[in-house]
UniProtKB/TrEMBL annotation:
Keywords: Amino-acid biosynthesis, Hydrolase, Methionine biosynthesis. It is an enzyme of class 3 (hydrolase). This is 2-hydroxy-3-keto-5-methylthiopentenyl-1-phosphate phosphatase. It catalyses: 2-hydroxy-5-methylsulfanyl-3-oxopent-1-enyl phosphate + H2O = 1,2-dihydroxy-5-(methylsulfanyl)pent-1-en-3-one + phosphate. Its EC number is 3.1.3.87. Pfam families: HAD (PF12710). The keyword GTP-binding does not apply. Pathway: Amino-acid biosynthesis; L-methionine biosynthesis via salvage pathway; L-methionine from S-methyl-5-thio-alpha-D-ribose 1-phosphate: step 4/6. CDD domains: HAD_Pase. Dephosphorylates 2-hydroxy-3-keto-5-methylthiopentenyl-1-phosphate (HK-MTPenyl-1-P) yielding 1,2-dihydroxy-3-keto-5-methylthiopentene (DHK-MTPene). InterPro entries: HAD-like_SerB, HAD-like_sf, HAD-SF_hydro_IB_MtnX, HAD_hydro_PyrdxlP_Pase-like, HAD_sf. The keyword Hydrolase applies.
Amino acid sequence: MNANKQMIFCDFDGTITNSDNIIAIMKKFAPKEWDEIKNQVLSQEISIKEGVGKMFSLLPSKKKEAITEYILDHAEIREGFNEFVAFTKEEGIPLYIVSGGIDFFVEPLLEGMIEEENIYCNGSDFDGETINILWPNECDVDCDNDCGCCKPSIIRKLVKSDTYKIVIGDSITDLEAAKLADQVIARDFLIKKCEEHSIAFSPFETFYDVMDILKKRKVTA
Ligand SMILES: [Mg+2]
Ligand SMILES: [Zn+2]
């Protein structure tokens, strides 16, 4: 396997971090209406994009620092992630973070580990009374999911026809990316979804597991 033909696309919330940061922010800072919006997203009454936009519009822009600080204090990075980043560098495998999270907490949490140009996530604007989410990675013509941050569109933009695509994720928001992948490394709800859609996957809990999975493949490739 030629290392420079591989690319890794790794989710952030619940994959690199142990739990979901948007949920943590809403639980701590939002008025109780956020819960109803979350339920509408889960029941697919509204798109992820609409739901995330509405949830953050419940939060005053002046809370930016407090929210960022809260996440930096409380978010836990999954075991082995630093070692995994070093591994991809040694192997020369490009590692992209594709996240439905927001820049003002994703980027500080990854600072010093991942270069900003390798991070794809949603943006934010604090000029108004409440937080306005920006969508620099919207769906391309081949996706009509109204994803917000469209993982399949990002993958289509970055790969060449012969790129071996490795997708790492944990949830429903990784499913469309997993469908495009040559190899899926999954945990939690994404495992169930892969099984339902007959997508082959390797399960993981820590990034040491992820490294073992990738090293094993290298030997046999
Ligand atoms: Mg996730
Ligand atoms: Zn999309």
